[in-house]
Amino acid sequence: MTLRFLFRLWAVSAVLVMPAVPTLAAVPCGTGSFQAWLDDFKSDAAAKGIAQSAITAGLNGVTLDQGVLSRDHSQKVFSQTFEEFSGRMVPPRLARGSTMLKQYGSVISRIEQSYGVPGEILVAIWGLETDFGVNVGKFPTFRSLATLAYDCRRSEMFRAELMDALRIVERGDLAPQDMRGAWAGEIGQTQFMPSSYIKYAVDFDQNGRRDLLHSPPDVLASTANFLAGYGWQRGKDWEPGSANFAVIQQWNKSEVYAKTIGYFATQLAHAP
After folding, report:
1. Alpha-carbon span 42 to 149, nearest angstrom
2. Active site (annotated) includes residue 129
3. Dihedrals φ, ψ of 189, to 5°?
4. What is the reported pTM?
5. What pLDDT, in 10s, does the model give residues 195-241?
6. Is the pLDDT of residue 182 over 90?
7. CB atoms inside a 10 Å sphere around CB 3
């Protein structure tokens, strides 16, 4: 699990500790065996029109992960200041970020034309999220999501994410065995939850799949599509207090993290 992912969990703690909403499934969250709950979920997925082949591929053999539950129940408040966090995260990634800006320059230029989001912002997010795709996480996505959906803390939220993970498989973007990421279900080189993957992922390399695990063009364009979807203003700055900074906070609501994205992007823009 990446340091960034721990930070995001702290940043959205208000969401993560919401009282559980009773599920509509025949087998309620946290009651009976996990397998009985999972079988009921499979039936519900089929009733919602998800292909049986996707349900079988994604969910057969999935078991409860007590380690995920332990991590979820033992989250700690993140207390670093912007100066502490940005000072630790940005300098080690700045040279690599500059290299990636140059390496993917033509792709980034086309993405900027399409979505209006500067490449520096996209590369900053990419670097902070997973060290440019190096540390995407190792937790099996379906096992993590099913575990958190079965648990009653936020069952409806993760039940919906599990459905969308099946839809990712159904439309052919990723194979279930490739879907590994952070322990709470985020996947890809900029760490999309499945619902965001379904809504914002784009096939920018035009190979027929929206592949946010292996295709940097898809990763960067999908991240730009997310920000554009929340109202990114083409040609405007991203300083705190600006409209674009508010969009960055839709990516991560923590002001410290959002300011670090902006700071990293500014450093990239001024790099030789």
Report:
1. 13
2. yes
3. -75, -15
4. 0.90
5. 999 999 999 999 999 999 999 999 999 999 999 999 999 999 999 99
6. yes
7. 14
Provide the pLDDT for residue 52. 98
**2/164: higher pLDDT:** 164
Long-range contacts of 42-48 (CB under 8 A, 24+ apart): 45/163, 45/166, 48/163
Query: For 89-100, what is each residue's pLDDT tens digit?
Result: 999 999 999 999
Q: Are 25 and 42 in contact (CB under 8 A)?
A: no
Options 112, 120, 129, 186, the catalytic residue: 129
CA distance 200 to 148: 23
d(CA 221, CA 205): 9
Which of left, alpha, beta for 121 (phi over 0: left; psi -120 to 50: alpha)?
alpha
Cα–Cα distances (Å) from 254 to 214, 222, 265, in that order, read 28, 21, 17
CA distance linking residue 166 with residue 270, whole number of Å: 42
Radius of gyration of the chain (CA): 19
